[in-house]
Design a protein that fits this description.
Helices cover 84% and strands 0% of the residues. By secondary structure, the chain is an all-alpha fold. The longest helix has 42 residues.
């Protein structure tokens, strides 16, 4: 009985670790992709959809 429970606990922990790794890597990719877009808002208002100031 203990062996079956231990196998279930290991499987649950493995799935939880996979989900955590996927979330961490997705967050890392989002942060890498977000950085250039922030800088582009100052240079390229057409790319970001920002409205330029009236002259």
């Amino acid at each position: 009985m203990f062996a079956r429970s231990w196998e279930a606990i290991k499987a649950t922990l493995a799935v939880a670790a996979l989900i955590a790794a996927a979330l961490i890597s997705a967050d890392k990719l989002d942060r890498q992709k977000a950085s250039p877009a922030r800088d582009a808002a100052l240079v390229e208002p057409i790319v970001t959809g920002a409205i330029p100031p009236a002259r």
